[in-house]
Amino acid sequence: MQNSAESKHEFRVGQRVHTHGDSHRTGTVRYVGPVEGYSGTWVGVDWDNGEGKHNGSINGVRYFQAKSERSGSFVRAQNLSQGISLLEALEKRYRSDSTKDEEDEMYVLSTSNKRVSIQLLGKDKIHDMLSRLEELTSASLSCLGVSSPGIPCHINTRVPNIKELDLTWNLLSEWKDIVTICEQLPNLGTLNLTSNLMSPCKSELPLLKSICVLVLNNSSVDWEQVELLKQSITAIEELHLMGNSISRILPMSSSMVLGFDSLRLLNLEDNCIAEWDEIVKLSQLRCLEQLYLNKNSLNSLFYPDKSSQYEPEVACYKPFQNLSCLLLGDNNFGDLVSVDSLNFFPKLVACTNENKETVADTQLIAALYIREQYVRLVISRLHTNPEEVKQHPRFSELKKIHGIEDERPSVGPAGPRTTGSGFLSITLECVGASMGFSIAITAFDNDMSSLMDLGIGNGSTILVDEES
Question: Ranges for the CAP-Gly domain (predicted)?
Fold first, then answer.
């Protein structure tokens, strides 16, 4: 009876699985076979969350190498699930009644992979609408154990109008399966594969001409894989690569990253990049407008000029010629030379750093040397510390360019008045990968003082991620 039961559960090394009944606990099969001292066949699993019992060895016998000392365990086949198809997941999510626990689990992911809870209003009406699969334009199948496309020709028949597909935290690992899904969904523009551990693709993939936004956070994708993908995602506008332990940018055929002719946003947050030279390799992406580098290990930066070691045949454009937004939070910057270098980026208008501990980091918060609010910030500090100007070598020049005179707080009928008193118009813009909004706010009088201290002036845009 035991052998008969086990024959129904055939697993292979490298396969992605989850615990039976718990699609949140995912792992990779690293061994299938006998274990000395125990009867029957066992499946050795290396768990994504690191919560196992050992490192792949028992009683001194090594069966597989887990990624950490306690991320591996041996499991009976009947206690593991090989997952379900994309079509089965669609039926489960949109054709069946949701439980209270499932509704409590509803969320969207911010760009930092944090869950932002959502609440459904008019649930019955929404459920009725979503149950008509052929009318769906956006589908979220996160944490459902999707491991395969299913019967390819059925996908386009059942959900022909899908434009956005969230496959976060499933069991997909083969690029051929992703290609099948994309080919069957010709309108698919946004694809989220966060926390699917993708196996390396061995060669270039077929053209995925409709994909404009691709999210590969925490998917074990390195830059060599990105270079292979580049030939397929020719229309890509947003590429998110957070949490992939990327330390080097490795162009395929030159010293600079080329191609990506439509790429506007590149998210490399929460990686291991330590040298700015690696970032310089991205400087010839002529459409790049937003570059997210929060949570890396950078300690300095510079603007690549003529003295940089370019290959003449690839240095066709002014470096970072359209970069307008640079996120540098939670790095190791500490020198004013790096801060001053920001002035040379031709179109940079927004630069943030979440770490406010040092003088240099505080200046990064000040939105840029080239902005008017930076000049006003320095002026406000000169009133209490005249030596402050020595830390800002281009202050006098920028003050003249913007036509800003020294302004001191004055006292009016309503009490102290701050620089430019009246009101400030500020826009808050969400930068989450799977959510978006924009809202304008107005600040008056004394509220403006603290905003100006941060270098925020009239017309500023503040980029917002999830609630911390």
Answer: 33-76
Residues 241 and 216: beta-carbon distance below 8 Å: yes
Q: For the segment 267-285, what is each residue's pLDDT rounded down to a tens digit?
A: 999 999 999 999 999 999 9
What pLDDT was estimated at residue 315?
Answer: 60
**Banded pLDDT at 348 (limits 50, 70, 90):** confident
Closest by Cα among 344, 334, 348, 346 to 300: 334
Please state, in angstroms and as integers, the Cα–Cα distance from residue 309 to each residue in 254, 306, 361, following that order: 12, 8, 28
Q: Give pLDDT, residue 310.
A: 52
Distance between CA atoms of 273 and 297, rounded to whole angstroms?
6
Residue 168 · residue 142 · CB < 8 Å: yes
Residue 188 CA, distance from chain mean position: 19
CATH of domain 150-307+316-376: 3.80.10.10
Rounded alpha-carbon distances, angstroms, from residue 167 to 25, 57, 98, 138, 142: 16, 33, 18, 11, 5
Radius of gyration of the chain (CA): 26
Q: Where are the domains of the chain?
A: 15-81, 150-307+316-376
Beta strands in 268-418 (DSSP E): 290-292, 325-327, 350-352, 410-412, 415-417
> Quick one: tokens of 215?
């999210």
Report the 10 Å Cβ neighbour count for 426: 19
Q: Which helix (H) or strand (E) holds 398?
A: helix 395-401
Asked whether the beta carbons of 156 and 86 are under 8 A apart, the reply is no
| Cβ count within 10 A of residue 190 | 20
* Average pLDDT score over residue span 402-424: 49
Which fold is adopted by the domain 15-81?
A: SH3 type barrels. (2.30.30)
Which residues is 391 bridged to in the sheet? none
Distances from the Cα of 207 to the Cαs of 160, 271, 367, in angstroms?
19, 28, 39
pLDDT band at 222 (very low <50, low <70, confident <90, very high): very high
Yes or no: say if 461 and 427 are a contact pair by the CB < 8 Å rule: yes
Rounded distance, CA 338 to CA 362, Å?
Answer: 13
